[in-house]
Amino acid sequence: MVALPLxxxxxxxxxxxxxxxxxxxxxxxxxxxxLGTGAAGLxxxxxxxxxxxxxxxxxxxxxILYDIRLPRLAMGLMVGAALxxxxxxxxGLFRNPLADPGIVGVGAGAxxxxxxxxxxxxxxxxxxxxLTGAHLIPFAAFLGGWIATxxxxxxxxxxxxxxIATLLLAGIALGAxxxxxxxxxTFLADDQQLRDLTFWSMGSLAGASWAKIATALPxxxxxxxxxxxxxxxxxxxxxxxxxxxxxxxxxERTKRLTILATAAAAGAATAIAGGIGFVGIVVxxxxxxxxxxxxxALLPHAALLGGTLxxxxxxxxxxxxxxxxxxxxxxxxxxxxxxxxxxxLRRRGLAGI
Length: 353
Known about the structure:
disordered N terminus; mainly alpha; 1% strand
């Protein structure tokens, strides 16, 4: 048998089951560390004993665990998973590793909705303001992202088909329009409103609550559970639209479902946690290096790694400058930007440029 030279050998990758078990173990470890870290420390062994009924917590510890840290953990897991899966879906649809939910204007639309609520919320009738209460900003952010998606799909659709190039250009144009409108509202904002919208734009899990989770879960959970159903179609689209159609894939339906799933997941996540960057780009990249481009493994693994990454980033955000708290978007950018640059340099080296 003639041995192949090293560059021509098939690249060995870990088995998907091994990657799944590793990611689940990592998620559990980071979750226990996050629950136990803070002003009142709780050791992992004590947490495990408390959850399994082996050791009772004090009244104060119970309040901290169940009313503060568990909602924060659940929200971090949900938002991180939603952003990472939305990024993987966008990259599969555009067949471009640089794509993320922001490229179709969802993030810019959500940002405009949130800024509008912050700056113009005082003009609402008292009855409507009382009805929306603390949910006004998340609701406005989701509405902004959803309207951007509807405009985008309307512009890109022609003759019953959705042109990917038009979709991309329309997303860039929508993002620019939303950015200009956001700039005008920022110019009109007073000092307190400027402070509020600055913190919202950098993202935070500080306002985590079971009520917020219940608001976003009906939109995010179906996407996380059902997105693997798009895996076969996205794998086929990687070969090109004509080839996918020859393989029996309904290309137009796949495009619409992917865009709607991305808008629901990324819009709801941005609405409750603010602008958090790099998760949607970096997580799918890292997983492709480990498991390859097969969306059947990529999508569920992106949910696990995205949730783990955001829980870890939140732990850093609230402990690095304690008792103050860093916006989580700063942490994800600080961690994600060097990793993204390394990925680009690695790809350039592999390409021999």
